Amino acid sequence: MPDRAPQPVDRQLPTDEARDLLSLVRDIAQREIAPKAAEEEDAGHFPREVFTLLSSSGLLGLPYDAEYGGGEQPYEVYLQVLEELAAARLTVGLGVSVHTLASYALATYGTKQQQVEHLPAMLGGGLLGAYCLSEPSSGSDAASLRTKAVRDGGDWVITGTKAWITHGGVADFYTVMARTGEEGPRGITAFLVPGDAQGVSAAAPEKKMGMKGSPTAQVHFDGVRVPDARRIGDEGQGFSIALSALDSGRLGIAACAIGVAQAALDEAVAYATERRQFGKRIADFQGLRFMLADMATQIEAGRALYLAAARLRDAGRPFAKQAAMAKLHCTDTAMRVTTDAVQILGGYGYTADFPAERYMREAKVLQIVEGTNQIQRMVIARHVAGPEGR
Question: What is the top-level taxon of the source organism (predicted)?
Fold first, then answer.
């Protein structure tokens, strides 16, 4: 019903290059992603061709060094790219965020030789990554993971199962956290595992309420042999690498959440300004006007929060607390805004003829992935009040 095109977000960008980049992203989103989003999500189609296009356009390695094929963009810019992509289709925005997360360990902790050998293909060579930390019995308590890596001469042999892996079964490489030593966080090491390595397999994708086009699956490592040259960082450093990656990854989730919320607001505004009841636009009824005002305010607050955290990161300052706050606030905002968008569209909002119901289903997972919002509250509380039990 609504045919009113949403207005682009008025963004504060640091350079002309960044403005050109966002213009490119909007063009790709409007031409290549958004028109097929509803149909492909309903069919459960994973848009690998879109990720190939994003890679060739230089959009899969934006925050990493240009020396290795990255875009060398600040997080302040990269996150706004994610927001635009997620507004067009969350499967794509979240997929780029996960790929960036999967590349983080090697880009940040890898040796020069490892980076020269692997990063160009990961950042701009068409490869797609996945991040393997969670397991069937260790989600929030990630330090209790059971996947093992045992030394065998100059190799490591990895055995175990990872769960809830975005891109499971379609990824070209997996960044895998495995136990190489004692129980707890100090016995975990990170590895870069090729997706086609012998012994790597994926279960059937999970049947989810949303993001049906993004495969989420268990990934099995059955005696997978990788050379020590694919170990990332020191032995026993894997858990600290994983947590460091998640601080940045949570900002990606926050940006994606605001993208989904913005798309839902745009849909609600378009509908409310076209739909007429009792002789006038429903957007002229005060109850709905106040809902739209609250939705817009929550989105702007979330955008400001994730950008403030990003600027801390770009300045080399601690940002873990702010990343947790951004993830918490932005994903809760996405859930509220998408729920309100369905309400504004009324019966139409509950049908698949309009995207509001898809936004609502997709928003829910953002409160869960990369640390549930209950975990975010624990992280924030530790920064505010100190560790528990002191």
Answer: Bacteria
Residue 6 lies in a domain: no
Last residue of a domain, one of 212, 238, 264: 238
| Together in a domain, 114 and 153 | no
> 113 with 166, same domain?
no
How many CA within 13 A on the CB side of residue 115?
A: 17
So which residues are the catalytic ones?
A: 370
CB neighbourhood size of 333 (10 A): 26
In degrees and rounded to multiples of 5, residue 281 shows phi and psi of -60, 140
| d(C-alpha 26, C-alpha 11), whole Å | 13
Q: What is the pLDDT of residue 94?
A: 98
Q: How many domains does the chain have?
A: 3
Contacts of 160 (CB under 8 A, 6+ apart): 135, 145, 146, 147, 148, 178, 220, 221
Residues 6+ apart with CB under 8 A from 326: 250, 251, 254, 302, 305, 306, 308, 309
Phi, psi values for residue 376, rounded to 5°? -60, -40
> Domain range holding 87?
16-124
- Does 8 reside within a domain? no
pLDDT of residue 5: 60
One domain for residues 245 and 367: yes
Q: What is the pLDDT of residue 1?
A: 47
Low-confidence ranges of the chain (pLDDT < 50): 1-2
pLDDT value of position 135: 95
Cα 366 to chain centroid, rounded: 8
Q: Are 326 and 76 within 8 A, CB to CB?
A: no
Are 61 and 169 part of one and the same domain?
no
Per-residue confidence (pLDDT) for residue 2, from 0 to 100: 46
pLDDT score, position 389: 76
Q: How many other C-beta atoms can be found within 10 angstroms of the C-beta atom of residue 289?
A: 13
**CA–CA dist 209, 357 (Å, integer):** 11
Distance CA 191, CA 231 (A): 4
Q: Tell me, what amino acid is at 347?
A: G
The CA distance from 13 to 255, in Å, is 15
Burial 338-377 (b: 16+ CB within 10 A, else e): bbbbbebbeebbeeeebbbbbbbbbbbbbbebbbbbebbe
End position of a domain, from candidates 238, 268, 296: 238
